[in-house]
Amino acid sequence: MKKVTYAMLLIFKETFRNRITLLLILLIPAIFYFIAIYTTSEIPILIKIASAPGEQVMLLKPKDLGLIYIGLAAAGFIASFMALNLMQRNTYAKKRQILCGYSTLELSLSKLILVICIVIVLGVYTAILGLLLMEPKHISGVILGYILCGFVYGSFGLLTGAIFKKELEGILVIVLLANLDIGWLQNPIFYAAAPGKFIIKLLPGFNPSQVAVISAFTDYSIHSQIISSLMYGSVFLIAAMIIFGTKMKTYWRAAL
Questions:
Q1: How far is CA 200 from the centre of its chain?
Q2: Which residues contact 251 (CB under 8 A, 6 or more apart)?
Q3: Using CA atoms, how far apart are residues 67 and 129, in angstroms rounded to an integer?
Q4: Alpha helices, H only, the chain
Q5: Is the model's pTM score more than 0.85?
Q6: Tens of pLDDT along 1-10?
């Protein structure tokens, strides 16, 4: 466990050595919220929440709905980019760590624990900013939805970083999926009129976004969405760790 802790501290220091990175992480959610405030309407419209039982519709302000989804987008984008960066950087340092006696499991655990810590802090921070602008019914559920969105997309970022060697390819994949998913299709305004709703439900951001929006505006249960979010993120996470472990074993054999 000491090796895992030490490796995690090294990655943390390397990642946040540049203060601009930390500043951007703090500013991006605020910028997203600022844009949402000044570009969405306060005139209530009828909305059907995807996971709400039956065909019940609700009268909601697009601005309140937009604040929830822009927060989810910020949490998902940042978590995925951070995870991609953690997975792809310092390849030679990883090789040296293997030569110094680190196992692939220890290196994998150090990345996993750090990503989870970043996701939790990012989710809470993003949710707090949003809560300053609106009053949801269940604050804890909204925060949990943001954390789960960060977990799912953070895991996707790790998987993308494990598959692609270069940063550009990974960024393009993340931008494409995150923009289509949480940035567009998951919003009930677009979801309601979509002919292929089953495709939207299969996307990574569906269950985390439902946790947040159901908690914000209703009293319905979110247990099934929480479980589905954890399962979805875990699939990405396991796949990422398997690919990363396989690559590290290749480095280890080459070193021998």
A1: 17
A2: 94, 95, 98
A3: 10
A4: 2-15, 19-39, 62-88, 91-99, 104-131, 139-163, 167-180, 188-191, 197-202, 206-217, 223-255
A5: yes
A6: 666 675 667 6
